[in-house]
């Protein structure tokens, strides 16, 4: 059993302008496994968001002009501090987010690599020299934008928060971070502790928190304030649409990484053990609360019975319960709204003729690993993102049919193909309407330096490595006229 984590007394406040600021009111941060109050967190609003934006704006000139190696040094120090404190994060994320211990350890190991990858970007080229028709020295330079708002999600608060701010920070931008109200500590205030200890200058990195009731107020300020030059959002497609629309109305850049309805395509020559393990991990890791989760398993009809039998056998070994017990791999869904959505999809599918060959039981905030067959397109579980431990298994006859089943969704985030024939997979990939595809692996994949993002309703823009640097910088054209370009004589 894990020790119970950080108490409310250890929540220092919001982090604004290099200072810990107590809130005028507080909201309850709930442990989703047991429903107990885990901490009390400052409930900020427009005023606190505006103060953080002003602090970030004031800090921008000095931070953007700081020597690149000095910015890199702070990010590298943050990585080292994080590694020293990784068990603090694991303990907190298990309680605050309901994740399995192994999931917490994975996040804790991943985040330092995000900081290091961002630090490495400080040493990369920031532009290029172009040819000029007039013999000028012509340069295209990437320059920081200013204040970037980062709105991060609850499901992977370590990875998705660090990814959202580390690269813009490396580029010379300043940050105002608003974590999810479901994980305000692990997705926000814990990072403030890390960055403060790393020596981040005052105002460069700020964290504001709020309850669900004040999300609209704070969120509007973080998008619409004229000092904010860009927005990084990871979360649901409905909210992402709103943020992108508001950012667009103000002619601001927005990188929005949204939902998915991802498929794992299992061809008839697939290694069965690899296929079932990829399906189990992809569908049930963190209760399926991952944007890249495998929600549709498309299996060639010739191996469908064998695959289904072995997939069920593998998944039924996963234990469900309070993740304070490390043996429970399937923890709670994050809140009651998520439970109701998943419960509705299961009940809707069963009422319309689907069969639960595994699971289907829902209690409190827990949902057993559930595998559904006989699913048809009129069911919500086929059409809508589930974000829970539910997988549908569907047979197909041809590669073209598998591609059509994969594409039958408004989403287009990730996908996977399991096959012994890599060339066959590579021939299929151009027809898959997804931003990412992984051959002989699950759709759940990420690395700090890769172009992470989707197509269609799964988002706009890319996170990771040089792609983040391009997203959160502006391009400036600079010329040096050394050939004295002639002007028309009339002038």
UniProtKB/TrEMBL annotation:
Q: Which keywords appear in this protein's UniProt record, sorted alphabetically?
A: NAD, Oxidoreductase
Top-rank taxon of the source lineage equals Bacteria
InterPro entries documented for this protein: Ald_DH/histidinol_DH, Ald_DH_C, Ald_DH_N, Aldehyde_DH_dom
Domain Aldehyde dehydrogenase: residue ranges: 20-478
Similarity remark: Belongs to the aldehyde dehydrogenase family.
This protein is called Aldehyde dehydrogenase family protein
């Amino acid at each position: 059993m894990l020790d119970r984590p950080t108490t409310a007394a250890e929540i220092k406040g919001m982090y604004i302008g290099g200072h810990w600021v107590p809130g005028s009111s507080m909201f309850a941060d709930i442990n989703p496994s047991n429903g107990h109050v885990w901490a009390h967190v400052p409930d900020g609003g427009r005023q606190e968001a505006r103060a953080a934006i002003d602090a970030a704006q004031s800090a921008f000139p000095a931070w953007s002009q700081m020597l690149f190696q000095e910015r890199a040094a702070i990010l590298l120090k943050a990585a080292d501090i994080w590694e020293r404190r990784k068990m603090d994060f694991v303990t907190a994320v298990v309680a605050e987010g309901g994740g399995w211990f192994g999931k917490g350890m994975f996040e804790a190991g991943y985040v330092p690599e995000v900081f290091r990858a961002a630090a490495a970007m400080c040493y990369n080229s920031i532009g290029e020299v172009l040819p000029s028709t007039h013999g000028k020295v012509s340069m295209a330079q990437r320059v920081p934008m200013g204040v970037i708002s980062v709105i991060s999600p609850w499901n992977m608060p370590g990875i998705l928060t660090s990814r959202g701010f580390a690269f813009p920070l490396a580029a010379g931008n300043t940050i105002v971070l608003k974590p999810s109200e479901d994980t305000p500590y692990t997705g926000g205030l814990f990072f403030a502790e890390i960055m403060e200890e790393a020596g981040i200058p005052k105002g460069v990195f700020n964290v504001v928190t709020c309850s669900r009731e004040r999300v609209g107020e704070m969120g509007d300020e973080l998008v619409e304030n004229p000092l904010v030059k860009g927005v990084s959002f990871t979360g649901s497609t409905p909210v992402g649409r709103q943020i992108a629309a508001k950012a667009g109305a103000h002619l601001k850049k927005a990188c929005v990484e949204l939902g998915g309805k991802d498929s794992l395509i299992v061809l008839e020559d697939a290694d069965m053990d690899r296929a079932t393990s990829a399906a189990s991990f992809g569908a049930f890791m963190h209760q399926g609360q991952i944007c890249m989760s495998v929600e549709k398993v498309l299996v060639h009809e010739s191996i469908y019975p064998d695959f289904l039998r072995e997939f069920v056998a593998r998944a039924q070994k996963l234990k469900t319960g309070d993740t304070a017990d490390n043996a429970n791999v399937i923890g709670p869904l994050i809140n009651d709204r998520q439970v109701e959505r998943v419960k509705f999809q299961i009940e809707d599918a069963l009422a319309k003729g689907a069969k639960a060959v595994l699971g289907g039981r829902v209690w409190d905030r827990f949902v057993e690993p559930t595998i559904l067959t006989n699913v048809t397109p009129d069911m919500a579980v086929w059409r809508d993102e589930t974000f829970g431990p539910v997988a549908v298994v569907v047979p197909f006859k041809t590669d073209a049919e598998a591609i059509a089943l994969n594409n039958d969704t408004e989403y287009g985030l990730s996908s996977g193909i399991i096959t012994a024939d890599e060339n066959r997979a590579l021939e299929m990939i151009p027809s898959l309407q997804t931003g990412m595809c992984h051959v002989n692996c699950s759709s759940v994949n990420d690395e700090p330096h890769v172009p992470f993002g989707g197509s269609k309703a799964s988002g706009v823009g890319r996170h990771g490595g040089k792609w983040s640097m391009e997203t959160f910088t502006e391009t400036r054209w600079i010329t040096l006229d050394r050939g004295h370009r002639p002007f028309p004589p009339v002038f």
